[in-house]
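Posting for a labmate who doesn't have an account.
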Amino acid sequence: QVQLVESGGGFVQPGGSLTLSCGASKVSFEFYTVGWYRQAPGKQRELVANITDLGITSYSDSAKGRFTISRDNVKNTVTLQMNNLKPEDTAYYYCNAVYWSLNYWGQGTPVTVSS
């Protein structure tokens, strides 16, 4: 069974940084578009950033300039580097991998930004 596993979430003060990592078992990310989504309490899940199999990246307006998504096909991981975190970044962050009709989600990792 394909599993995506997120790690790296936690508690950080405003202005701090966190690095989220998404790893996969029984699937190679190589041909997948992999994205990071987040869902705050009472809000809809939203796309934060994604990266295609060719390494093309896209970011939400709130993530631009602060977050960086990257992939390592050898390690089969996708990383989201988050800098200058703000309280409004507080949410559960989910990894998603898509390839044609194949669509996988991780269980999420919590990020809390608070002073």
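Reply:
Got it, the structure tokens are right above this. The longest strand covers residues 91-99.
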